[in-house]
Amino acid sequence: MPDFPLHFYEYNVWANQQIFNRLKELPKEVYRQDIQSVFPSIAHVLSHIYLSDLGWIEVFSGKSMNDALALAEQLKEQTEAKEMEEMEALFLELSERYTLCLQQNEQIDKPLQIQNPSAGIMQTTVSELVPHVVNHGTYHRGNITAMLRQAGYASAPTDYGLYLYLKKTEMA
């Protein structure tokens, strides 16, 4: 399926929005509540997801992995301090960049050479890395689900299977 990277990324956008929608239903303090987990708060998890996604789109756009990591480090404190509504807006802006990139067929299969600081040089393409971006987001949305449950709240369903079902029923 030639459009798979774009379709899979659209799932990622939907799943992130499911989390934001659920957080908006909860008391405002839940977003920054200290929780004994992998991250100290849901705000920190969302910042991490955002900065990772930002780093990858920078790499897809031609920046080096080192530059992308430096940008993430530079923006970390500032991003962690953002309110939930600001983070949601950043996620939406970033999704527009991804969508434009993934709609350009010559861009998604263009060879990329990535100098990964911990793994060496890798030859790949944007289309091969989109599942990594989505999988990373899925993993950390799982962290958020666990944190919400720890705080006494249910999360939001973000399964890919549910997304496919909803997309298919919308088309019917």
From TrEMBL:
The keyword Metal-binding applies. Keywords: Metal-binding. SUPFAM superfamilies: DinB/YfiT-like putative metalloenzymes. Belongs to the DinB family. The keyword Manganese does not apply. PANTHER family: PROTEIN DINB (PTHR37302:SF1), SLR1116 PROTEIN (PTHR37302). It comes from Bacillus vallismortis. InterPro entries: DinB, DinB/YfiT-like. This is Damage-inducible protein DinB.
